Amino acid sequence: MDRYVEAERATIAYPRKGRVVEAVRDVSLSVANREFVALVGPSGCGKTTLLHAIGGLVPIQSGQIRCAGRPVTGPGPERVMVFQEFSLLRWRDVRRNVEFALECNRVPAAQRKPIVDRLLKQVGLANHADAYPDQLSGGMKQRVAIARALAYDAEVLLMDEPFGALDAQTRLVMQALLLEIWEGSRKTVVFVTHDIDEAIYLADRILIMSTGPGTVKAEYPVKAPRPRPADFVISEQFLDLKRRIYGAIRAEDFRKPPQAGQAPVSV
């Protein structure tokens, strides 16, 4: 498969209290076109910083990040972010929140309604088009955010712990919905999460990041069929992979300074 998102020895740093702090050091990774990749690692390892750099929201100090073969120097129409905080416009109802993406893409007004109707039906909100964000549950708000992201019709979805603020039951529902949508659209997805179970259930491949300054230390393919069987999460394959990833995150080696240019371990 084609390499669609790439980082080549990317380092990201920021000033803090008169000194420069490295958040990400010498990261190299690639995500294939239409692949679903999850980034997992301890708090402070730079997962979100790296995702924001791929989105063009933060600069890198050295190395390069590319999307579709072009250097990332800022936000671009081929990439769209989905945040944990929903980021909905409170003064717009559900329909007009989704429509905002079409306005940004300069889609003619006459063409917007059928697109919004289709997306709201896809995320299960067709009966809530006139509701405002303050009238919605957390899961419903995130459905709106996902529908809006899909309305941009970007090739790459960058998802920063989008279900992290949801309760456990709603989170499971949203994971299943995301997989259903992804199976239909096959967008390229880079998904940041702290939840190992979530990463295994959703992703084609899981990249483990070390304690900050973060770097990619290992990768684990998830060799389960698509669509994922209902009993996958209780299978021995799932549990074995979870044990190995959990052990990798806890391993002492992941708290040691990374070696420059070190390739990730493929497991």
Structure description:
The protein has 267 residues and is α/β, with parallel strands linked by helices. 33% of the residues lie in helices and 25% in strands. The chain has seven helices and eleven strands. The protein has helices at residues 47-54, 94-104, 109-122, 138-151, 168-185, 196-202, 236-250, and strands at 3-16, 19-32, 36-40, 62-67, 70-71, 79-82, 156-160, 188-192, 205-209, 216-221, 265-266. The chain has a seven-stranded mixed β-sheet, sandwiched between helices. It has a four-stranded antiparallel β-sheet with strand order 2-1-4-5, covered by helices on one side. Helix 2 packs across helix 3, helix 2 runs parallel beside helix 4 (138-151) and helix 6 crosses helix 7 (236-250). The protein is globular and about 50 Å long. Residues 258-263 have low confidence and may be disordered.
Number of helices: 7
What's the total number of strands?
Answer: 11
Class from helix and strand fractions: alpha/beta
Fraction of residues in helix: 25-40%
Helix-strand sequence: EEEHEEEHHHEHEHEEHE
Low-confidence stretches: 258-263
**How would you write the strand order of the largest sheet?**
6-7-8-3-9-10-11
Average pLDDT number: 89
Largest sheet: 7 strands, mixed
* Percentage of residues in strands: 25-35%
User: Alpha-carbon distance between the termini?
Assistant: 19 Å
Give the overall shape, derived from the CA principal axes: globular
Provide the gyration radius in Å: 19 Å
